[in-house]
Design a protein that fits this description.
With 573 residues, this protein is of the alpha+beta class. The protein has twelve helices and 16 strands. The chain has three domains: 213 residues, CHASE domain (Beta-Lactamase, 2-Layer Sandwich), CATH 3.30.450; 102 residues, Helix Hairpins (Orthogonal Bundle), CATH 1.10.287; 160 residues, Histidine kinase-like ATPase, C-terminal domain (Heat Shock Protein 90), CATH 3.30.565. A hairpin with a 3-residue loop joins strand 4 and strand 5.
Length: 573
Amino acid sequence: MPNQFFSTSGSLDESLGIRTGSVWRKTTLRMAFLALLCIGLPTLLEISAYRETVAQTRVDAREELNRLRVEIERQINRDVQLVRGMVSYVRVRPDLGQIEFDRLAAYLLSDDTNIIRNLALAKNLTLSHVYPLEGNASVIGVRYEDLTDQYPMVKKAVEENRIIIAGPVNLIQGGRGIIARFPVYRNTTETDGPALWGVASMVIDFERLLDTVKISQFTRRYDLALYQIDAGQMAETPFFGDGSMVGDDPITLDVSLIGTSWGISATPKNGWPKRSNRFWQTVAIALLAFSIGCYLIIVGMRFENALIQLAVQLETAKREADAARSVAESANRAKTQFLANMSHELRTPLNAIIGFSQIMIGGLLGRINNTKYEEYLKDILASSQHLLDVIGDILDITRVEAGEMELHEQNFTIRALVDASLRLTRSRADQKAQTVDISIPDDLPRIRADNRMLRQALMNLLSNSIKFTPEGGRITISAGLTAAQEMEIAVHDTGKGIAPEDLERIVEPFAQGRASSEIAYEGTGLGLSISKRMIDAHGGDLRIESELGKWTRVTIVLPASRVNPPEAVQETL
């Protein structure tokens, strides 16, 4: 049947030529556009994926190297504290002989992990005592002033009256060691003031330290070097490792030691990734898309097939996003599981302590005819229950961060809250001869809150005040209403105070104020962080004011909506 559009052979040839040329031109343009698309889009995706891969690799490397940093800090800082104990003893017994010093040193090193090489005393800056004497006798009688490479650090320790860590240095008796020195001052008379007795020192074997922290496990995977840090600047030459082997853009970590700092600089053995983890997958997808596109253009398949391919790619992207979200959720579940396991492991023995204490207090197996023992049992029971509450509080913080915290509210008085908190903290204040004053009006209205959480927050504040207030100091607990009818509960102490630059970070988890050179404070640094989150859960605020060296005041502020609850639901602690 003749075609109406091509009635003559000339018209047919002309029309075929025009159509053929148009098809080829469109095909060429479509092929060129497809090629640009299949090159450009995967390139952009690879750039983004590469950045993500490098970033994740650096995060993983930093987390792994951070374990090395923590272990070095733990080993050195723990052992350096032994010098303080030796200094205290020498101040009391300045004329001790070598035999007495041997007994003291053996006692101090009884729990050592075998990285401490020796302990020594230098009376009048001349080495006079050393333990163990065997292998170290050659240092007896050596004057620090004759050791030109070590004397500057000795002089610095004496002038600044603090622990100075030097090293690693080459030792007289051979090998390399890290030396911690602490000057020993004694009060000769009330008028003359402190006089220099000498210097106490401890030598940590550098090679044993490296073996203890298992640095070989890290050097197998990383080109790693350790540097001294002076005045915030990392030394040019490392004291461990080959700095020239460390590649570009290394991971750097500060190792905070007592009196000094080290730096860790490291890169993976094979360098940072050269391509993303999905490079070949992206290349494969790009080639597949190009092949499919060419096929569709050549055979003239409908554009719906292209939409199907796009849908497949979108579904792939969605699955990758779901996988990434699943990884994040898995990490969060792992943290929750860890806290749950920790809670279980701690609660099991605590429940046993609480149960046995209750049995003995109740006299189920016979009365204890000793009033003092009964008081001790009550203290044991109260302390165990308090510790059990603390474990719950740590889990509560996790729930607060996840938005899952539930308040168990009841009505109670501020005086009852303060009395309950003091029951478990006053004994520590009494041990330090501290005066605890309470200034709470009798007509103060009740509040409605979770009494366990609020009691824990107040106990944390009291514990901090007791810890950082010197013996004979004063702690004042006060409460009152503001003009806006908010309830304020304040703990004021005459302690060391907080430096202005620490006021903001002090409420972060594991943050602690800077201790003085005379006192090393213990604790996890969670107290204020826990308190703040508990107060935040009540819609309140935690305010900290301080003057360094004079006083600190921490105030719990509860909103007016929690003050003076309805009488119909009154409860007590």
